Amino acid sequence: xxxxxxxxxxxxxxxxxxxxxxxxxxxxxxxxxxxxxxxxxxxxxxxxxxxxxxxxxxxxxxxxxxxxxxxxxxxxxxxxxxxxxxxxxxxxxxxxxxxxxxxxxxxxxxxxxxxxxxxxxxxxxxxxxxxxxxxxxxxxxxxxxxxxxxxxxxxxxxxxxxxxxxxxxxxxxxxxxxxxxxxxxxxxxxxxxxxxxxxxxxxxxxxxxxxxxxxxxxxxxxxxxxxxxxxxxxxxxxxxxxxxxxxxxxxxxxxxxxxxxxxxxxxxxxxxxxxxxxxxxxxxxxxxxxxxxxxxxxxxxxxxxxxxxxxxxxxxxxxxxxxxxxxxxxxxxxxxxxxxxxxxxxxxxxxxxxxxxxxxxxxxxxxxxxxxxxxxxxxxxxxxxxxxxxxxxxxxxxxxxxxxxxxxxxxxxxxxxxxxxxxxxxxxxxxxxxxxxxxxxxxxxxxxxxxxxxxxxxxxxxxxxxxxxxxxxxxxxxxxxxxxxxxxxxxxxxxxxxxxxxxxxxxxxxxxxxxxxxxxxxxxxxxxxxxxxxxxxxxxxxxxxxxxxxxxxxxxxxxxxxxxxxxxxxxxxxxxxxxxxxxxxxxxxxxxxxxxxxxxxxxxxxxxxxxxxxxxxxxxxxxxxxxxxxxxxxxxxxxxxxxxxxxxxxxxxxxxxxxxxxxxxxxxxxxxxxxxxxxxxxxxxxxxxxxxxxxxxxxxxxxxxxxxxxxxxxxxxxxxxxxxxxxxxxxxxxxxxxxxxx
Length: 742
Known about the structure:
Layout (H helix, E strand, L loop, with lengths): L10 H18 L4 E4 L6 E4 L32 E14 L18 E8 L13 E10 L5 E4 L2 E2 L17 E9 L3 E9 L8 E10 L23 E12 L4 H6 L3 H4 L2 E6 L15 H9 L19 E6 L24 E13 L2 E4 L6 E5 L12 H6 L18 H4 L15 E11 L4 E12 L2 H12 L2 H6 L7 H8 L2 H16 L6 H8 L11 E7 L2 E7 L10 E8 L9 E6 L5 E4 L8 E8 L33 E3 L3 E2 L4 H6 L12 E4 L4 E8 L4 E8 L4 E4 L12 E9 L2 E10 L1
């Protein structure tokens, strides 16, 4: 008997697909990646052009770690994968194709009627997915990240590969390139900003150049000349963004109702009429269709009025109502806390596409196509062949039976979606193509895109949850009002407006007819700048205090008029709010935080401020390790004087405890336990209950505090259980218990 996943997809098929994704992760690691983390939108860029398996793509808002604290992956991701398709017609195999790996290799001189190179998620684990030659990647900052130490330990070193450029037109820029066996080189330049009006989007400039260099793909071991060239015109060239939009972090983990398996990841395109293909103004009308579907006309009232945003060309995604989860759950309200777990509206807009290699004006007939389907149904080169994959990018080409040039989502079409519906409408893997160009040898085509995320920041989603879940008495005590279902839906669907507002703002700066990268950078330079980051920051725990010391920026220091310090208590995962605790002049570069409690870890970020009141990035000078105050050393050690925090140490987020806290932020602790009430010198020995020694720690400090990193003497993580600790010193002995739950 074949078991079936909730979506109706056979479990064996899902398992096979997951295995392919595991291979994808292994193979993707062959490429180098860099990360932009200066504004609210964080993203990953590689020198192979495809990114983000594992939750590193379109993270918004940035700075929030996953709940399990396992590694540097992030919650709030908007997409599971970003890939591409390239296609041409009448492609001639070069004289030496020994380094190729093709689904059906052909001899030199053979003409492929349709030739496709790709690394989209459907084809990556299959043949022909490694006709790529990884290129270079360089990350450049306008102001380098701050070098930070906490208690003398360097935090993760800043990710810098291209140095600092104080004249940069953005706060960060990543230049990456890759080639393929088609003889095409792609150079992608991504720009990001920290200014509060521009920190929710990145701008991408793509140049596709016919260099004729076709050798040698990273998948093969055959020797070849990497500079070998074969000159031919690339005819009917198409390029497509293959996006797999999904919230695969919090929304999936808490409700088990996200993603295309559950049929509530909805994707759409606006900018051209789906029937006539004529350009048309973009309006925020999803709320109107939802209102009609639910029969709740009130949700289109007030601030949720349908609005026009003009000539955008944008595909976007949102989290709709899951048919496999009880009740209406657009945005995934947490079942216990009410916090919206999937409040993001990610999108990608085409700003410019050259008419031809000889005409750099914008082509209003681009994009050529937007369509989507379930990942397991998209064309696969080793099964359906290159022609089917190529035609999926064409206007009215066949994509799993659909010939729509601009496909609409199920909500706009008024048809059922989700589990049990047409498999197409539980899909979120996109074809978003531009093309139809002929590119002679040495010539190139330029395109410009905006990648953005709108929606609701973390602190707002927490507030919404409180208004949904607290009792009337608790609401009154906090000065809050109840958010009912009508207001929740009305508010959630204004996320579409926030996305369009962000993209509109960016496009107005760039303008349609900008093509060359120099002209683009001149336009981006008009965006207000943020001041530079401090050069260094040292945070040190003292007796009943924490001290911060910093140095002025190494460049552009004259722009700084003040410093500000923000602090969060108790968590490294970003779920506790940061609050401003200090503002001072540039002449002062030290601050002692005396408003601290023993047993609590504190996290800080330091920003500079310019004459306009604009702050530097909150992520460039932010501690990744917690610092806590210590107690003064004791003169007498006793069982009642030594204590351990936290005890028990619970790495799991116990939702039952959280439920009783009525929507207080989930606690997140560093992977350590702290001993307090120690003398200046002591030995701490930790045993299992049957007397096996686990760890010996030598304490020799002027403070009465010592940390244990939960590792054994052999460097292995200790398992869940009850342990005995013994503190031994000339001042006395203390024995106690501690508990670890993983």
